[in-house]
Amino acid sequence: MPPPLPALLRETYDPATQISPAQIEAVASIVRARAPGARFLVFGLGRDSPMWQRLNADGETLFVEDKPAYVEAARQAMPQARIVVADYAATTVLGSFAMSPAALDAIAMPEELRGSWDVVLIDGPAGYWPGDPGRLVPLAWTSRLMARHTHVFVDDYNRVLERHFADLLIRFDNPPCAELAHEREAGKTMLWRIGRSLPP
Protein backbone atom coordinates (compact mmCIF):
# COMPACT_ATOMS: atom_id res chain seq x y z
CA MET A 1 0.00 0.00 0.00
CA PRO A 2 1.48 3.40 -0.95
CA PRO A 3 2.03 5.99 1.79
CA PRO A 4 -0.55 8.77 2.28
CA LEU A 5 -0.86 10.93 -0.82
CA PRO A 6 0.79 14.13 0.50
CA ALA A 7 3.84 12.17 1.69
CA LEU A 8 4.06 10.20 -1.55
CA LEU A 9 3.94 13.34 -3.69
CA ARG A 10 6.61 15.03 -1.57
CA GLU A 11 8.85 11.97 -1.93
CA THR A 12 8.44 11.53 -5.69
CA TYR A 13 7.82 15.02 -7.11
CA ASP A 14 10.46 16.33 -9.54
CA PRO A 15 10.42 20.16 -9.74
CA ALA A 16 11.33 19.93 -13.45
CA THR A 17 8.01 18.20 -14.20
CA GLN A 18 6.03 20.27 -16.69
CA ILE A 19 2.61 19.49 -15.20
CA SER A 20 2.01 21.93 -12.37
CA PRO A 21 1.77 20.89 -8.71
CA ALA A 22 -1.96 21.71 -8.55
CA GLN A 23 -2.63 19.65 -11.69
CA ILE A 24 -0.59 16.77 -10.26
CA GLU A 25 -2.64 16.92 -7.05
CA ALA A 26 -5.86 16.63 -9.08
CA VAL A 27 -4.70 13.64 -11.15
CA ALA A 28 -3.13 11.92 -8.14
CA SER A 29 -6.24 12.40 -5.99
CA ILE A 30 -8.42 10.77 -8.63
CA VAL A 31 -6.04 7.83 -9.10
CA ARG A 32 -5.96 7.24 -5.35
CA ALA A 33 -9.76 7.58 -5.16
CA ARG A 34 -10.03 4.63 -7.56
CA ALA A 35 -7.56 2.52 -5.52
CA PRO A 36 -6.87 -0.20 -4.76
CA GLY A 37 -6.47 -1.75 -8.16
CA ALA A 38 -6.90 1.40 -10.27
CA ARG A 39 -6.23 1.05 -14.00
CA PHE A 40 -4.23 4.12 -15.05
CA LEU A 41 -3.23 4.78 -18.68
CA VAL A 42 -0.56 7.43 -19.29
CA PHE A 43 0.36 8.73 -22.75
CA GLY A 44 3.91 10.09 -22.47
CA LEU A 45 6.99 9.28 -20.40
CA GLY A 46 8.84 11.99 -18.52
CA ARG A 47 10.16 13.18 -15.19
CA ASP A 48 6.77 12.52 -13.59
CA SER A 49 6.62 8.84 -14.64
CA PRO A 50 8.20 7.38 -11.46
CA MET A 51 5.70 9.40 -9.44
CA TRP A 52 2.73 7.96 -11.37
CA GLN A 53 4.17 4.45 -11.10
CA ARG A 54 4.62 4.72 -7.34
CA LEU A 55 1.28 6.44 -6.85
CA ASN A 56 -0.57 3.47 -8.35
CA ALA A 57 1.64 0.72 -6.92
CA ASP A 58 -1.39 -1.32 -5.90
CA GLY A 59 -3.01 -0.98 -9.33
CA GLU A 60 -2.11 -1.24 -13.01
CA THR A 61 -0.25 1.58 -14.76
CA LEU A 62 0.52 1.45 -18.46
CA PHE A 63 2.71 4.04 -20.22
CA VAL A 64 2.55 4.69 -23.98
CA GLU A 65 5.55 6.43 -25.58
CA ASP A 66 6.89 7.04 -29.08
CA LYS A 67 10.47 8.19 -28.39
CA PRO A 68 12.94 5.28 -28.07
CA ALA A 69 15.33 7.32 -25.90
CA TYR A 70 12.55 8.04 -23.39
CA VAL A 71 11.55 4.38 -23.36
CA GLU A 72 15.13 3.25 -22.71
CA ALA A 73 15.61 5.78 -19.90
CA ALA A 74 12.33 4.81 -18.29
CA ARG A 75 13.11 1.09 -18.44
CA GLN A 76 16.38 1.75 -16.64
CA ALA A 77 14.76 3.94 -14.00
CA MET A 78 11.60 1.82 -13.62
CA PRO A 79 12.40 -1.80 -14.60
CA GLN A 80 9.00 -2.95 -13.38
CA ALA A 81 7.02 -0.42 -15.45
CA ARG A 82 4.77 -1.56 -18.28
CA ILE A 83 5.56 0.48 -21.41
CA VAL A 84 4.03 0.22 -24.87
CA VAL A 85 5.95 1.75 -27.77
CA ALA A 86 3.68 3.58 -30.22
CA ASP A 87 4.36 5.07 -33.64
CA TYR A 88 2.65 8.43 -34.15
CA ALA A 89 4.74 9.48 -37.15
CA ALA A 90 1.74 9.44 -39.50
CA THR A 91 -0.03 12.17 -37.53
CA THR A 92 1.97 15.38 -37.27
CA VAL A 93 0.46 18.38 -35.53
CA LEU A 94 -0.18 20.13 -38.84
CA GLY A 95 -1.25 17.00 -40.75
CA SER A 96 -3.75 15.95 -38.08
CA PHE A 97 -6.26 18.59 -39.15
CA ALA A 98 -6.45 17.13 -42.67
CA MET A 99 -6.57 13.49 -41.61
CA SER A 100 -9.72 11.62 -42.61
CA PRO A 101 -11.65 9.51 -40.08
CA ALA A 102 -10.86 6.43 -42.19
CA ALA A 103 -7.12 7.14 -42.08
CA LEU A 104 -7.31 7.65 -38.33
CA ASP A 105 -9.23 4.41 -37.83
CA ALA A 106 -6.59 2.57 -39.88
CA ILE A 107 -3.93 3.28 -37.20
CA ALA A 108 -4.04 0.13 -35.12
CA MET A 109 -4.39 0.54 -31.37
CA PRO A 110 -2.02 -1.72 -29.39
CA GLU A 111 -3.80 -4.67 -27.83
CA GLU A 112 -2.39 -3.81 -24.40
CA LEU A 113 -4.56 -0.68 -24.32
CA ARG A 114 -7.85 -2.49 -24.73
CA GLY A 115 -10.17 -2.80 -21.75
CA SER A 116 -11.65 -0.46 -19.18
CA TRP A 117 -9.52 2.31 -17.66
CA ASP A 118 -10.25 4.30 -14.51
CA VAL A 119 -7.97 7.24 -15.32
CA VAL A 120 -6.31 8.34 -18.57
CA LEU A 121 -3.65 11.07 -18.71
CA ILE A 122 -2.78 12.38 -22.19
CA ASP A 123 0.58 14.13 -21.88
CA GLY A 124 2.31 12.90 -25.03
CA PRO A 125 3.60 12.98 -27.64
CA ALA A 126 5.19 16.39 -27.16
CA GLY A 127 3.51 18.14 -30.11
CA TYR A 128 5.35 21.43 -29.81
CA TRP A 129 5.98 22.14 -33.51
CA PRO A 130 3.86 21.66 -36.67
CA GLY A 131 6.03 18.77 -37.88
CA ASP A 132 6.08 16.94 -34.53
CA PRO A 133 3.83 13.96 -33.89
CA GLY A 134 0.60 15.31 -32.43
CA ARG A 135 -1.87 13.98 -29.88
CA LEU A 136 -4.69 13.16 -32.27
CA VAL A 137 -4.04 9.40 -32.01
CA PRO A 138 -3.96 9.28 -28.17
CA LEU A 139 -7.14 11.36 -28.10
CA ALA A 140 -8.86 9.09 -30.63
CA TRP A 141 -7.80 5.91 -28.83
CA THR A 142 -8.95 7.37 -25.51
CA SER A 143 -12.36 8.19 -27.00
CA ARG A 144 -12.75 4.49 -27.83
CA LEU A 145 -11.49 3.27 -24.46
CA MET A 146 -13.20 5.61 -22.01
CA ALA A 147 -16.36 4.65 -20.18
CA ARG A 148 -18.75 6.77 -18.14
CA HIS A 149 -16.64 6.23 -15.00
CA THR A 150 -13.30 7.10 -16.68
CA HIS A 151 -11.55 10.31 -15.69
CA VAL A 152 -9.63 11.78 -18.64
CA PHE A 153 -6.95 14.47 -18.25
CA VAL A 154 -5.61 16.24 -21.37
CA ASP A 155 -2.53 18.36 -20.73
CA ASP A 156 -1.82 21.44 -22.86
CA TYR A 157 -5.54 21.89 -23.53
CA ASN A 158 -4.78 25.54 -24.35
CA ARG A 159 -3.02 24.48 -27.57
CA VAL A 160 -4.97 24.43 -30.84
CA LEU A 161 -4.73 20.70 -31.62
CA GLU A 162 -5.43 19.51 -28.07
CA ARG A 163 -8.44 21.80 -27.68
CA HIS A 164 -9.92 21.04 -31.11
CA PHE A 165 -9.70 17.27 -30.91
CA ALA A 166 -10.41 17.01 -27.18
CA ASP A 167 -13.62 18.96 -27.76
CA LEU A 168 -14.47 16.73 -30.71
CA LEU A 169 -13.51 13.35 -29.24
CA ILE A 170 -13.50 13.68 -25.44
CA ARG A 171 -16.26 16.26 -24.85
CA PHE A 172 -18.62 15.15 -27.64
CA ASP A 173 -21.35 13.99 -25.21
CA ASN A 174 -21.32 17.12 -23.03
CA PRO A 175 -19.78 15.49 -19.93
CA PRO A 176 -18.98 17.42 -16.75
CA CYS A 177 -15.55 18.96 -17.32
CA ALA A 178 -13.15 21.34 -15.63
CA GLU A 179 -10.15 23.29 -16.86
CA LEU A 180 -7.21 23.19 -14.46
CA ALA A 181 -4.94 26.22 -14.69
CA HIS A 182 -1.17 25.89 -14.58
CA GLU A 183 -0.16 28.13 -11.69
CA ARG A 184 3.33 28.78 -13.09
CA GLU A 185 2.54 29.39 -16.78
CA ALA A 186 -0.27 31.82 -17.51
CA GLY A 187 -2.73 30.51 -20.08
CA LYS A 188 -1.58 26.87 -19.88
CA THR A 189 -4.42 24.54 -18.93
CA MET A 190 -5.35 20.90 -18.49
CA LEU A 191 -8.78 19.52 -19.40
CA TRP A 192 -10.41 17.19 -16.88
CA ARG A 193 -13.32 15.09 -18.13
CA ILE A 194 -14.87 14.06 -14.84
CA GLY A 195 -15.72 10.37 -14.58
CA ARG A 196 -18.97 9.46 -12.87
CA SER A 197 -19.45 6.42 -10.66
CA LEU A 198 -22.82 7.46 -9.27
CA PRO A 199 -26.06 6.91 -11.18
CA PRO A 200 -27.38 9.85 -13.26
UniProtKB/TrEMBL annotation:
It is a single-pass membrane protein. It comes from the Bacteria. It is found in: Endomembrane system; Membrane. InterPro entries: IRX15/GXM/AGM (IPR006514), SAM-dependent_MTases_sf (IPR029063). It holds the Pfam family IRX15_IRX15L_GXM. The keyword Nucleotidyltransferase does not apply. Gene3D superfamilies: Vaccinia Virus protein VP39 (3.40.50.150). Keywords: Membrane, Transmembrane, Transmembrane helix. This is Class I SAM-dependent methyltransferase. It comes from Labrys wisconsinensis.
